[in-house]
Amino acid sequence: MWDLVFPPGPPDLIADMFSAAVVADAVRPYDADLAQSVETCRDWRHGYHRVFRGMTALAISAPEVSLGMAGAGLDSVRHMLRFSVGRTVTTLDAVDMDAQAEAVNLETGEIAGAAAAVERLEVPWRGQLLSEGSLRSRLAEWQADGILEPDFVAAVERVIDHPEWLRLPGFQAIVIGAGAELGPLRPLLAWGADVLAVDRPGATRWARLRAAAEAGAGVLRYPIDGEPGVDIARSFPALARWITTHSTGRPVLGLYAELPGAAGVRLAAASDVLAETLLRHRPDAALALLGSPTDTYAVPASVVAAARDRLVHRGFRGSAQDLLHRIAPNSLYRLNYARPIFDSEGGAWGLFDNLPALAGPDYALAQRLPRWRAVRAHAAGHPVSFTVAPPAWTRSLTRENGWRTAAYRAASRFGIEIFDPATARTLLAAKLVADLFSGDPTPTNPEALFATGAAHGGLWRQPFAPRSLLAPAAVSGTIAAVLHKLQ
């Protein structure tokens, strides 16, 4: 049995040691002091946050830095991760993918949907089904409220104008992490697209996927290794071969699979191997990814200006917020963008920081690996669709009943919208479609891939750092819930 494993080390420390080594390798050629601070950090689990902020600022400084860091980071992952086959263990970069793929033959399942294809873009929102004029009006309101970036709105409007794009004629979508709630699988099937779906085995998971395929109008094909689905981290050589064998149209590889903790790093690395293999075999392939709203990004000056403008127009409420900030300057109402960062051409950017304090370096690195792959793929000439997703009421969140749920309930009072998953995934899938057919101008800096066309839900354009709003929002949401119960 194959397996993707960390190098030898203390079981409770090796994941942190691995992430620190990868980050140090990525930044060392461009900031030796930052690399040394990683290597000498005595508490990497708490010190990583500052480093990932610094790494984001460093990446925006120049295109060659962004591209070089991406290459060095991914090469480090390849060199340090181990590929285990029985008693044989080798580095990931030494694996003969073709030879390993021949050892396992994945079968293929297929489901053809029986419904008629949805022939125009329809977005479910608060019990309504928005389309054409009503959808354009809602998009305009989201843009005016700072919920969606103008480029995102323009992309969705192009799909409204070209509904023939919805079924992805000429393309074949490959969805890694098919069950992801914000992934494009369900909308694409409803629109009649041809999809290769990959996800872990599991009866409940695949029952949902089969139901989505049967209710749609497209064709769903999926790998079978004794049962539907495969473990990507354990089967990526055979999976890479299965994907290249079954790609009938121009492939669009979407990476949406995630897991918590150290397993998430292994999964991100395996997904990256799939991406590298497909992009190497198919020069015409496109890459599609979603960025987490809980990460760090360099954002353009126009976003920073909008956030500062809102700071000026707060009225009486602003005085109370300023007072609370003076009482607890590090934890309450801290400014979203304290100081600008500059690129090599003198352009000013803001540094958006929403990495969760307790997420850990495993989470941060798992989010960074696909961003590095996006930078390298774009530099190699592959179309890349990367969209920062909005916060959403996912299943994991709705099962909670703690401070985060309470904060989400009060988010609208702070200029942030928490999306229903059905709304978010339909909008995000439409953005993907627009990117594939119309493309975007090549950014002067690769890091602009992550800022263009974001659907951040208002997090970027409100004046305060999101983490500094958690406590006020949680208190506000809890009070609102208590009052609602009393009524």
UniProtKB/TrEMBL annotation:
Superkingdom of the organism of origin: Bacteria
Descriptive protein name: Uncharacterized protein
